[in-house]
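the two lines:
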Amino acid sequence: MSDVTTTDLYEVTMALSYLREDMHSPATFSLFVRDLPPGRGFLVTAGLEPALDFLARYRVDRDDVEEFAAALHRPVRDLMPLLGLAFEGEVRAVPEGRVMFAGEPLLEVTAPLPQAQLIETYLLNQFCHQTVVASKAARCVLAAAGRPVVDFSLRRAHGPWAGLQAARLGTLVGFAGTSNVAAAVSLGIPASGTMAHSYIEAFPSEEAAFRAFALSHPGPVTFLVDTYDTQEGVRIAARVLTDLGLGPGCAIRLDSGDLDALARRARALLDSAGLADVRIVASGGLDEYGVDRLVRASAPIDVYAVGTKVGVAADAPYLDAAYKLVEYAGRPVTKLSSAKITAPGRKQVFRRAGLPDVIALAQEDPPDSAQPLLRTVMRDGRRTGPPDHWQDARERFREDIAALPDSARRIEDPEPVPPVRSPALEQLTARVRSGIEARLRRPAAVLPPSALSARPS
Amino acid sequence: MSDVTTTDLYEVTMALSYLREDMHSPATFSLFVRDLPPGRGFLVTAGLEPALDFLARYRVDRDDVEEFAAALHRPVRDLMPLLGLAFEGEVRAVPEGRVMFAGEPLLEVTAPLPQAQLIETYLLNQFCHQTVVASKAARCVLAAAGRPVVDFSLRRAHGPWAGLQAARLGTLVGFAGTSNVAAAVSLGIPASGTMAHSYIEAFPSEEAAFRAFALSHPGPVTFLVDTYDTQEGVRIAARVLTDLGLGPGCAIRLDSGDLDALARRARALLDSAGLADVRIVASGGLDEYGVDRLVRASAPIDVYAVGTKVGVAADAPYLDAAYKLVEYAGRPVTKLSSAKITAPGRKQVFRRAGLPDVIALAQEDPPDSAQPLLRTVMRDGRRTGPPDHWQDARERFREDIAALPDSARRIEDPEPVPPVRSPALEQLTARVRSGIEARLRRPAAVLPPSALSARPS
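prediction for all of em together
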């Protein structure tokens, strides 16, 4: 098993057929999201960096050929045309961390058709998952309105790999840390976490547990106070902190119950114990909706830990994303069977301050003072620059989100800012469409390419 | 980064503290699901096999120690007590593929406290994700009512690892195949898939595409017919199949639109072309709800391909699963702060034909003709037998699901069969609870273990 065979079988059957037919001409595929899920005012694009790593090392080796042959129940020699195939194409893409909308290409691949086809499944897998989680995490940051948010999602993420990505994607949109040790160390971000209820239960009493914890961990500590009786837990925590001369940097954590009410009582108890600088961390089933309610209620919570619902993007765990052929051998193409019309041709997205994005053809000149969002990030199968750092992605996100209208940023019933299409793109779409419709009205036959679609002007 | 550091930081801080306090006594943790998600009448337990692989190889090495130190901003020597720590405990668990309900332990670990604690995050990660996806996949098999179901979820699963697991979990509950090459080959199951719309678009016409595909793929083929006009696509497919003398084993695939209506028209066209043995495959946004509607409408669909919504368990993408300390150093323990009361003590689940399961204490004698569901699968950190094969899990699932009442199996508004608790377990729960409540009414102090909880009788 390898990244190369982590693919849908049909990519392999198509590639084999293309090779047999000598269909090596350049194909452009466009990766985009058809519609935003309900409850989303924007997407935060993510998945490009792992996708580029995948493309840079893509090479069908002997083991892959044998796996393909086994899957197809065909002799290995039939699959040998694929041996050594690497990705040698161009990738134009929107860098990670940018705020994007439905219909906008996030990535366009141009490569010999068999190459561009074989990589489809893995690219969709990366972009769908990561964009959906980054977009949910971004809303948590908005809901927290400046308070730190940390990631506790590993235990319920869809596998260890998804857990690592949840930490990365949270970081990308501004999370302050993660409970995931491997993720924290590999990303160079703060690791966060203290104790579970089981820790308290293993000791004869909460006080014994808190004292033992403080003794084994020099520096600031966080005590989990809701194992038995939360108010009593706060009193015990306050006494231990006071006895040990701790305070600044320390915290208590609430993990269940009415977090608003418990936080108010805890704050009062801590303040009256002279522990005004001890912070309150809240966790337990939170996502942007829960954080938003607590923040709007002015609950005295200093740090929000979000987990399960964010790591799996519980209310919208997938995107209606597609990787569509938009041009082959110089002719723009599209599919016509349903409401899902894909605009043909290589594209660019232009962004202008205070106005909707424009989806245009790649060769169009930008409107005045517009910024093109797709950049060439890979050429001849090699990255055009060093890998992106999450700090750069975070900065892009910070700028993009600040420029977004409140209506798109709000937590409840947000409204996206739909992009518009350039006149040239509209014209090409109409031409390609009517070309196909004309063909369908005629008796079916093997027709030359010119009958299938209009040529680009 | 390793499986060992793919953990929440608090597992490490707790383990360090336990080691410092010489708290090496045996601890039992119980892994269970508190509540079934809405729309679920049962769970199919999964995740044990990868969890046992993890436990068998668990060992904190030098790199792990360094990562822990980095995450805690502490000198490496502070973490050295963890070096070489391996899992040497016992695991009692329900094997994969069994039908289970809320509150029933799926796994119980008994090991020295630091070991039993350190493995929590990874175990939860495996069980939560895999049980949730297996349970959704099982419902698709029920909805299809005997028709083959295949997995197309890789492109939208939460990463490549989740995609592999989706294929495995579908197989476990009876799927006929998967589009995922790596998964198909590693599991030894059929790989499924033919062509994308892009394949059709890359050729001058549908007919040219179908002919090229058949030429490059000896044996039965499946043609995707909905790229432009679905009825016309079926006609062209029928003509190509007839011309090439193909038929038995071949299929057409519908991937969009009104699948019921399109399938009826396609069936009529194929039948009138003398292609009654050409099958119809349906895909496109299907899960158990969509399959159920089509099957109940008697749509002439022979194979159902389910993808996105099943791979991410879209309507219920996580479980409220917990890994709770239930016994430490011989005394049963629990947590009291919320409605989430955990029953203390080591447990067993007894299953009797036609009656609800009984959750009992591990040492209780089974009721008459009851089957204990938890088996000892690991002792002294080693598996007690060879790894389970998916065929055995599938057979267990087949038997369990057949024994389930229709009300739990149905797709819309299913009703689970809640387990009952044995009198001995009820009594222990009450004793431990009142012991803690008595302690909370007295002035807080460091109390001996006897004050925290009742001793088991």
